[in-house]
Amino acid sequence: MSSTSIGTVDRLSAGEFSGSVGELAVLLADTVADGASLGFVSPFDQEAAAAWWRTRAPAVADGSLAVWVCRDAGGINATVSLALTGKPNGRHRAEIVKLMVHPGARGRGLARALLATAEAAAAAAGITLLILDTETASAAEHLYLAEGWTRYGIVPAYAASPDGSLKDCSFFYKELTSGPGAPA
Asked: For residues 63 and 82, what is the distance between their CA atoms, to the nearest angstrom?
């Protein structure tokens, strides 16, 4: 656990993850309802969000998915995950997934703090390459550009937003400087 001016950032253990599914579901459902492109389309409610989070429990338990949350007095208001690859030729890379901040908690630096936490944990684990994708021209894309990520392509009409409209998607990578075989 780390404490910041934005609250606490914690990596969830398997047990903590299971106990947090309800709060994570509220966060996911509210973020999608606000229009965030996270892989879901409307209608999408808390029950569907909880079901989706529960499917992630085995990956959290086996360590192939790390989930961090940011909490304040009201509970979980932001999250990010780091998905490790199981491919023998890709053990040096991981993917940042499901970085989201509750609409009522935006503008406080939560996304930046969670992204930095996931990047630091990846580097400490020997990961030397991170990848992610996000909706083109979104606030998230601006964050990744500001944090030193490199956009390597845009795919037009890649995914549907919650309202069903097709949106372009930007793909990013970031080389980390810690760990064996890391770039200089």
From this structure: 10
Q: How far apart are CA 110 and CA 158, in angstroms?
A: 27
> Can you tell me the distance from the alpha carbon of 173 to that of 88, in angstroms, rounded to the nearest whole number?
19
Q: Cβ neighbours of residue 70 under 8 Å, at least 6 residues apart?
A: 6, 7, 8, 9, 76, 77, 78, 79, 101, 105, 110, 113, 114
pLDDT tens, per residue, the chain with 184 residues: 554 556 789 999 999 999 999 999 999 999 999 999 899 999 999 999 999 999 999 999 999 999 999 998 889 999 999 999 988 899 999 999 999 999 999 999 999 999 999 999 999 999 999 999 999 999 999 999 999 999 999 999 999 999 999 999 999 999 998 544 444 4
Tokens of residue 173, six digits: 């990578």
**Residue 11 half-sphere exposure toward CB, CA atoms < 13 A:** 16
CA distance 181 to 100: 31
Cα-to-chain-centroid distance, residue 171 = 14
